[in-house]
Amino acid sequence: MTASEKPELYRDLARQLAALIAGEPDPIANAANTAALIYHGLPNLNWAGFYFRNGEDLVLGPFQGKPACVRIPVGKGVCGTAAARGTTILVPDVRDFPGHIACDPDSRSELVVPLIENGRVSGVLDLDSPLLARFDQLDRDGCEQLVAVLLVHYGKYPRGKM
């Protein structure tokens, strides 16, 4: 996929996502459809899904791909670091990320977008790829847009104690 094709792909995914979740209040159903849409809509992914905050941990939510780590402490790995910082993290080579948690040894690059509600991180969207440097700024912007659509359309994510 060329850089010129990515913005339109993400606009199309955002339109599809808005249509999929319009009027559906169940956060698990919406997260499941979001993960499936991203996994099947973006090339070269081997995992796409959510972790939701429960106290000081991120707990596995709906996803597409191989079985995954169930709990990730906030502040650990790429997902936990994104949750702790409240910012998106793009990792070209996960082997270069200190403390990377290897749920799937085939993953080589990762993109994690925090879900921020009322100024608090309630979870993260996590994308993994078997390709080095699979994700770029256009992917970051596009996935942040998808998270924004998800948050606007139905409200609260499932979570325990924050």
CATH class: Alpha Beta
Per the principal axes of the C-alpha atoms, what is the gross shape? globular
Q: State the CATH superfamily name.
A: GAF domain
The overall number of domains is 1
State the CATH architecture: 2-Layer Sandwich
Strand content: 25-35%
Return the string of H and E elements.
HHEEEHEEEH
- Helical run tally: 4
Unreliable spans are none
What's the rounded overall pLDDT mean? 92
Read across the widest sheet, the strand sequence of neighbours is 3-2-1-6-5-4
Task: Describe the model.
- The chain has 162 residues and is α+β, with helices and mostly antiparallel strands.
- The protein has one domain (6-154): GAF domain (Beta-Lactamase).
- It has helices at residues 6-21, 27-41, 77-85, 137-154, and strands at residues 47-54, 57-65, 71-73, 89-91, 109-117, 120-129.
- Strands 3-2-1-6-5-4 form a six-stranded antiparallel β-sheet, with helices on both faces.
- The longest helix has 18 residues, at 137-154.
Topology:
Blueprint: H1 6-21, H2 27-41, E1 47-54, E2 57-65, E3 71-73, H3 77-85, E4 89-91, E5 109-117, E6 120-129, H4 137-154
